[in-house]
Amino acid sequence: MKIKTIYTSLVYLFVVMCFTIGVNQKISAQNITAKGVVVDATTQETLPGASIVVVGSATGTVSDVNGNFQLPCPTGSTLEISYIGYTKKRVTAASNLRVELSGDAIALEEAVIVGIGYGTMRKSDLTGAITSVNQNDLKKGMITSAEQLLQGKVAGLSVVQGSGDPAAGASVRLRGGTSLSASNSPLIVVDGIPGVDFNTVQ
């Protein structure tokens, strides 16, 4: 009787182990890690920062500096790859993907430079105003300083000469002189360097 009980227990344990192994294998087979690289279809240059998401879920990632990405997802998932200025593309998840994105002229027109060199942003996402001054406007009038280049050419920008001395600096205020939120002195960025003094610009 004791031997029969031990035998029954061993059989039960064996069945449980087989079931557990089978379930684990099934779960493993249902998930993969999608891997690949995102490139420009024309130049074949890699696209760092491209967005890769699993369609129908909140799972996603972005490509690294070399355009490579890895994303765990269920087998058979559809991935949507997007990048500013390019047409979105959908592919089936696999372990060796090469996604080529084509430039989208319409999307590229909607991507504008924010301020003076901070990056790109879609027009629909902008929360402020952008004003540009072209080269021909800068050639008009007699000027003695960099501040005077913008005087009267940018809406909301006030440039007031402190004295009659041509070499004296000017007071520059953005959006009027009564801002309640913070200082209305503009942040000046020249060639990507913030905080430049207008008097040092040649």
From TrEMBL:
Alphabetical UniProt keywords: Membrane, Receptor, Transmembrane, Transmembrane helix
Residue ranges annotated for the TonB-dependent receptor plug domain, each copy included: 123-194
InterPro entries in the record: CarboxyPept-like_regulatory (IPR008969), Plug_dom (IPR012910), Plug_dom_sf (IPR037066), TonB-dep_rcpt-like (IPR039426)
Name the record gives this protein: TonB-dependent receptor SusC
Residue spans crossing the bilayer: 6-23
Taxonomic classification: unclassified sequences, metagenomes, organismal metagenomes
Organism field: termite gut metagenome
Keyword tRNA-binding on entry: no
